[in-house]
Structure formats: structure tokens, C-alpha cells
């Protein structure tokens, strides 16, 4: 984790930002929970355990800064809350989400299922695709039973 934090610190410094202690605490929470889809409030509650002096406004500002610099990305699952995940899509690989309508469980689907569709849209409509997102809604195995 220390190597990733150092790399991100360098990335921010190259854009004339600092990795302040508060930003580092927020980054550590994102790294420790990279398999989860955290809201800003979730991040805030986790950071407060380690650094009680970090405020909610700092969390929001930092998450937006990290978004701007492709350190994290956000997803909206239709529940009115933006969720954040550590990582970026700069390698061209996307993952998608299956969302249970009953319990809210979110499953990650790591196959990039839309590459052919993107190519077809680009060809048929003379459209340059820069990104895509797929969300599948239904019921997980536990809720279906």
C-alpha cells in the first residue's frame, strides 16, 4: 500500500497538489476497501475512526480531487448516492455491476462485455466511444430463494 500511496502522491505533486495527511487517510480508506462501493459518508465514517479531525467537507473535496485525477472513479446505482471505487479505467478494462433490488448487494462483473458493441456503435454511427457503464438489476441468489 505504501508504494501506491507514494505513486499517487507523485501524481498529485505533478499537478501541483499535495498529498496532505487528511488526503492520505482518505486514500488509505479507499485502498483498504477497494472491493467495496463506498459513499462519501461511508468514507467519512471509516476515516473518522483513524483521524477524528477529518471533516465531511474534506472528504467530499478529496474524493472530487481524486476523481479529477483518475485515482478513483464513481458509480451511481440509482439509489441517490454516488459511490466511489479505488482505481481507474486507464488500462481500457471495465468492470460492471449486478445490483440486487431487494438487499442492495452489488456484485462486480469483471468481463468487459461491451467491446464489440462499442466497435459497432463507432462504425455504424461514426461515434468515438470514450467510456461505458453497465448495470444489471435483479435479485441475488439469497434473495431469490
Q: What does this protein look like?
A:
With 145 residues, the chain is an alpha+beta fold. The protein has six helices and six strands. β4 and β5 form a beta hairpin. The N and C termini lie far apart (39 Å).
Whole-number total of structural domains: 2
By CATH reckoning, the class of the largest domain would read Mainly Alpha
CA gyration radius, whole angstroms: 17 Å
What integer is the average pLDDT? Answer: 89
Instruction: Determine the fraction of residues in helical runs and give it as a percent range.
Output: 40-55%
Strand content: 15-25%
Alpha-beta classification: alpha+beta
Any idea of the CATH topology of the largest domain?
Answer: Arc Repressor Mutant, subunit A
N→C terminal distance: 39 Å
SSE arrangement, N to C: HHEHHEEEEHEH
CATH superfamily of the largest domain: Winged helix-like DNA-binding domain superfamily/Winged helix DNA-binding domain
Characterize the quaternary organization of these chains.
single chain
Biggest sheet, open or closed, and with what strands and sense? Answer: 3 strands, antiparallel
Task: Enumerate how many helices there are, as a single number.
Answer: 6
Architecture (CATH level 2) name of the largest domain: Orthogonal Bundle
- Which segments are poorly predicted (pLDDT under 50) over 5 or more consecutive residues? none
The 3D shape can be described as: globular
Give the spatial strand order of the biggest sheet.
1-3-2
β-strand number? 6
Amino acid at each position: 500500500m505504501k508504494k501506491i500511496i507514494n505513486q499517487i502522491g507523485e501524481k498529485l505533486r505533478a499537478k501541483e497538489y499535495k498529498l496532505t495527511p487528511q488526503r492520505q487517510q482518505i486514500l488509505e480508506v479507499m485502498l483498504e476497501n477497494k472491493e467495496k462501493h463506498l459513499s462519501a459518508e461511508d468514507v467519512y465514517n471509516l476515516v473518522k475512526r483513524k483521524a477524528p479531525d477529518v471533516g465531511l467537507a474534506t472528504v467530499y473535496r478529496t474524493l472530487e480531487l481524486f476523481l479529477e485525477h483518475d485515482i478513483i472513479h464513481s458509480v451511481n446505482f440509482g439509489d441517490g448516492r454516488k459511490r466511489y471505487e479505488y482505481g481507474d479505467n486507464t488500462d481500457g478494462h471495465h468492470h460492471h455491476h449486478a445490483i440486487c433490488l431487494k438487499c442492495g448487494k452489488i456484485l462486480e462483473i469483471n468481463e468487459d462485455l461491451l467491446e464489440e458493441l462499442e466497435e459497432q456503435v463507432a462504425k455504424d454511427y461514426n461515434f468515438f466511444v470514450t467510456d461505458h457503464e453497465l448495470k444489471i438489476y435483479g435479485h441475488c441468489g439469497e434473495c431469490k430463494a
